């Protein structure tokens, strides 16, 4: 499967899910163009320190002491950002944002994409994030991929250290939230990350459904920033493009001097009029896009007249245009891929159910095999014998944990079947008074419920 076509197909029937997971496993086995050196998150943490620094926040002194990892969990996962300016000293000193500014930007993107899908009736199957940094947006959107109809997320950044940190945080997030994500409705999502310069168009980022670039353009010279946006709207041609940049006028909220940038790495910052004029230029240059008036994100009480800390543009493709960027233009190198395993719980449940019914149909309960070491006689069967009847590729079957499968079986049989592990072998116990026909009837009845 090529990198440019990481699609599973539709509709979302059970076989599509199984096939999608089979393809996903193959995609995850593809070799990377480059393996990044693993960055030390401990050294990277000062970049994330903000108003909730657990070592200095007075409120933390009265809370139960946490270990080092738990202590920083909220900072890294709740407030991780692709732009360290979010938590600069200026914003730390006064008038910080609740929820944090990056979280508000992520919510803006989520709401905008949801509205776009609802209005256009077009699924955002391929989502690209350019200038992804530490992948805060990717983490923030994971639980909505099913609602978007997303099956492929591609991210690019020029900084290998940020990418390494982002990949570690993203993998940790997916692992910690695996149970929640697996219960969401949606096909599995392949998330690829690339090392590359966003000023160079890459064919794999062309004709995607959405491109998002948050707080990125101000980190490059204005001439290059305009070149990047022009490339997106004129060459890559996504159905929707969202980008944001700091509102320079809002720096007054942080006690900054006129002309002082929010972060040392910023090459420029625009006031509201300058940003609005830029959007006017884009409307003239790219009439095939409908470009909305600026959106403002992040407000502080008492400073409503400054609109918001970030200003965002939303550009929607109006004409049926496709990029003509040649397929061999691929300057970015793949450095990572992970899976967001949406929908796997329901698929696994149904596969186990079918396997159990098939097993019951083919298995005889012999009186001579009854176990009598408990309060009442019972049959004991290894769960592996039931899972042998799974009709799914080994790549998906291997993801179904035996004890989880037993829990599924307990539920679908209204707990007439019990967990029974003997000598390390996971199994089920079926009491003698449970007739096979009654078990099958219960399973079918629970399906209807």
From TrEMBL:
Region listing for Disordered, in residue ranges: 43-65
Superkingdom of the organism of origin: Eukaryota
SUPFAM superfamilies: S-adenosyl-L-methionine-dependent methyltransferases (SSF53335)
Composition bias, Basic and acidic residues: 43-59
GO (cellular component) term, any one: cytoplasm
Gene Ontology MF terms: metal ion binding; RNA binding; small RNA 2'-O-methyltransferase activity
BP GO terms, sorted: piRNA processing; RNA methylation; siRNA processing
Keywords carried by this UniProt record: Magnesium, Metal-binding, Methyltransferase, RNA-binding, RNA-mediated gene silencing, S-adenosyl-L-methionine, Transferase
Keyword RNA-binding recorded: yes
InterPro entries reported in the protein's UniProt record: Hen1, SAM-dependent_MTases_sf
Catalytic activity: small RNA 3'-end nucleotide + S-adenosyl-L-methionine = small RNA 3'-end 2'-O-methylnucleotide + S-adenosyl-L-homocysteine + H(+)
Cofactor(s) this protein requires: Mg(2+)
EC number: 2.1.1.386
Keyword Transferase attached: yes
Gene3D superfamilies per UniProt: Vaccinia Virus protein VP39
Coiled coil spans: none
PANTHER family (alphabetical): HEN1, SMALL RNA 2'-O-METHYLTRANSFERASE
Family: Belongs to the methyltransferase superfamily. HEN1 family.
Protein name per Swiss-Prot or TrEMBL: Small RNA 2'-O-methyltransferase
């Amino acid at each position: 499967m090529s990198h440019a076509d990481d699609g599973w197909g539709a509709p979302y029937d059970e076989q599509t899910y199984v096939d999608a997971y089979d393809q996903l496993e193959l995609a995850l086995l593809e070799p990377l163009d480059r393996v990044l050196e693993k960055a030390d998150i401990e050294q990277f943490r000062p970049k994330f320190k903000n108003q909730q620094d657990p070592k200095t926040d007075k409120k933390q002194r009265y809370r139960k002491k946490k270990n080092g990892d738990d202590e920083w969990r909220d900072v890294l996962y709740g407030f991780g950002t692709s732009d360290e300016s979010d938590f600069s000293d200026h914003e730390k000193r006064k008038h910080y944002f609740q929820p944090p500014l990056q979280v508000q930007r992520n919510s803006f993107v989520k709401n905008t994409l949801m509205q776009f899908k609802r209005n256009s009736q077009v699924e955002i199957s391929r989502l690209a994030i350019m200038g992804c940094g530490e992948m805060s947006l990717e983490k923030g959107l994971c639980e909505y991929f099913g609602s978007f109809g997303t099956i492929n997320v591609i991210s690019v950044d020029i900084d290998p250290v940020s990418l390494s940190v982002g990949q570690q945080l993203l993998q940790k997030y997916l692992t910690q939230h695996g149970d929640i994500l697996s219960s969401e409705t949606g096909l599995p999502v392949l998330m690829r990350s690339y090392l590359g310069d966003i000023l160079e168009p890459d064919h794999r980022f062309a004709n995607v459904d959405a491109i998002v670039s948050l707080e990125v353009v101000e980190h490059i010279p204005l001439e290059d920033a305009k070149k990047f946006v022009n490339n997106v709207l004129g060459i890559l041609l996504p159905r929707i493009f969202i980008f944001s940049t700091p509102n320079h006028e809002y720096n007054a909220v942080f006690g900054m001097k006129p002309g002082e940038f929010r972060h040392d790495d910023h090459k420029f910052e625009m006031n509201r009029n300058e940003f609005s004029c830029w959007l006017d230029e884009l409307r003239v240059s790219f009439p095939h896009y409908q470009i909305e008036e600026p959106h403002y994100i992040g407000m502080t009480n008492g400073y409503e007249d400054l609109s918001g800390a970030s200003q965002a543009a939303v550009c929607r493709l109006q004409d049926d245009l496709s990029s003509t960027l040649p397929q061999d233009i691929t300057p970015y190198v793949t450095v990572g891929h992970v899976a967001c395993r949406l929908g796997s719980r329901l698929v696994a449940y149904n596969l186990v159910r079918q396997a159990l019914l098939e097993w019951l149909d083919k298995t005889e309960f012999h009186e001579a095999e009854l176990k009598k070491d408990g309060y009442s006689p019972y049959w004991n069967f290894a769960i592996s014998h039931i899972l042998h009847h799974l009709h799914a590729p080994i790549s998906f079957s291997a993801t179904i944990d035996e004890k989880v499968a037993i829990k599924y079986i307990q539920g679908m049989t209204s707990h007439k079947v019990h967990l029974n592990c003997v000598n390390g072998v996971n199994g089920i116990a079926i009491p003698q008074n449970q007739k096979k026909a009654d078990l099958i009837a219960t399973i079918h009845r629970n399906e209807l419920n």
